[in-house]
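Give me the fold.
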Amino acid sequence: MFNIVPQPNEMIITGGKTCFTLTPDTTMSKAPYIDEFRDFVKKQFDIRIHRDNENTENAILLKRTDEIMNDEGCRLVCRDGSVYIYGKTDAGCFYGLQTLKQLLLQGMGQIPDMFIEDTPRYKYRGFMLDAGKYAWSEKDLNRLTDLLALHKFNAIESEIPFAEIFPEKTLQEIEEYCRRRFVKLDTAAKGDAFLFYDLTAPYGTIDLKQTYAREAEPETSVCGVQASLHMRYISNRNRADYCIFPRLGAIAETAWSAPEEKCYERFEAGLPEYFDLLNVYHIHYATMKQALPSFVRGKAQRIFFMFQKAKKADTSAENTDEN
């Protein structure tokens, strides 16, 4: 059994024997968005997948089809020794490759005959960055883009316009990097109704299980999901990783997976495989003990966070007085 985050809407293993195996002869369809996937395979399996639109044996084939109803939906079929990924758009095929990463990682380069049908629950799946003491570099933002795309998020927003953070040429390069991963870079949206998740809050306030369970109120109409990170309380990238992960995996299941597919017990049971995926990207995530803290640990986290907020408020007041 494979544990995929976010959980696909339908996954059926149709054969017990290995059907597809990564080898040095494996090829995949040419497309402008496949380089990151090829780098992933090279890093994990020391295999450089060749780009070839003609080969159909031991191949990863990306195909556009109107049979997929949703623009970001995808279908993954493994049969006859090859993997077929269908999407109505390139975005759908790209998200199919994100699923394939996890299948290959958990199957150690091998996949049985299987069928996956997948489509997002919400059209908008965003991440809000608040300015703070840790200044995000181009490299940091590109890394975040890769991690959001891995979780099938499609937007990064900032309360401060990105044009005020990066020089024009750098911003153009970042936008192109995001575009190839189907992530939109934008300023904060106004007036839209989102289901918000504050990743800055300590796990003692909002733990992993509570994050997973959070849903919009039945009478509330929301157009998407947005996770936010307030960088004014975070001083380095490792701390940002700790705040974001594994909670982003839980949020991704609300943002992408069908409500009837959500199951915290299944999600928690699959966390070892999820952590293996995060390790590939060198993420300094919170451990299970940290993400589901005891009462004493949770209280200590809350006290420390309140101390940080108070210290930040005092510093801001001093700066205001000096001005």
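The longest strand covers residues 10-21.
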